[in-house]
Amino acid sequence: MTRFTIAIAVLFMLAGCGEREGGAPELRVRAIEPFVVEGVETAVDRRLPGLIQAAERTSLGFAVAGTVTEIGVAVGERVEEGALIARMDDEPYRLQVESARAQLQRANAGAAERRSELDRQRQLFEGGWISPAALEQFETAFETSASDVRAAEAQLGQAERNLERTVLRAPYTGVIAAVSADPFEEVGVGMPVAELNAEGALEILVDAPDRLASQLSPGMPARVEATTVAGCGCAGRIVEVGRDVGGDNAIPVTVALDNPPTELLPGMAASATVSLATDGAGTPVPFGAVVAGPDPSRAHVFVYDTDASVVRLTPVSVVGAQGNVVLVSEGLTDGDIIAAAGTGLLRDGQQVRLPVGAE
To answer: CATH 3.40.309.10: does it fit domain 91-164?
Structure first.
């Protein structure tokens, strides 16, 4: 049972149908809080809180394991592409390069020796001194030595690449969002050392109730606001809707911002507002305006009669509810004034007055 259904059921359980016990009408002139009906709406805005983040961000880590010897950046620092992020002790990897080079030298020497021997045996074969089977053995030995050379070259290439990986550099220009390693700390392959946010493009990550998943889709427009940044009413659009529901029955939704102000920074709290279609067209009225009435199958509101300065208990058709708003499809017209609060003290035909300035 929805909140709206429960509330209406409670209203219908209230004694009377707009009259006090005994049927005596309330004669006291009461002031009402007016609400002006402004037409039919087919959509309801949903505000989703979230956090601003860089549209492109990277967690940087070494591709090899070792001991960090230098951290070259600080949080909030702007870095250019190729700038030093961190460096690790490269001595073990230099030794691996030297060992691989020595192995390659031995393999080349062995291959040269096998080549010379093969050339000599071919001359003997051409002179008829050795058999084809004997020559084939020397050819096989040379091919094996050539394979050893290729393997040693690959090993040297890998060792040199690992040596290069002991220096971590920025893959693009951006701002350091976090530093998660310290000098002399042992780090494994891929362990985060720093986080880099790209400059310019921003987005907001919000959590949306899972019941809205079917109504959200990439490309849908959104309005992004941040209370800490003056004038931040940014246009945006949904670029990704998650499909994994979290423990709080919410799905992650990413909204990209169009031309965000320079004062808006990653990590700031913000909200994204999206317009969602309702189950049917309806006029939004305050939840507190709906009351019980003589017809138990209908909801009612008190409509202000401007000629007689009284309120009329009017049946309406409700098609849905959204937060503190009830959607009414029938019973009201554009420009009607209804009582928005204190309706439990009003009676059909009761004389009322509007607040000063609201006439």
So the answer is: no
299-305 and 310-322 beta bridge pairing: antiparallel
Contacts of 133 (CB under 8 A, 6+ apart): none
CB 278 within 8 A of CB 43: yes
For the cut 60, the answer to whether the pLDDT of residue 215 exceeds it is yes
CATH (residue range 3-42+279-353) = 2.40.420.20
* Apex 49 CA angle, 1 and 44, nearest 5: 55
Q: Average pLDDT of 275-301?
A: 80
For the cut 70, the answer to whether the pLDDT of residue 159 exceeds it is yes
- Confidence at residue 17, expressed as pLDDT on a 0 to 100 scale: 39
CATH number listed for the domain at residues 46-56+199-278? 2.40.30.170
Question: Do the beta carbons of residue 196 and residue 172 sit within 8 Å?
Answer: yes
| DSSP 8-state code for residue 289 | G
Q: How far is CA 275 from the centre of its chain?
A: 18
Q: Is the pTM of this model over 0.70?
A: no
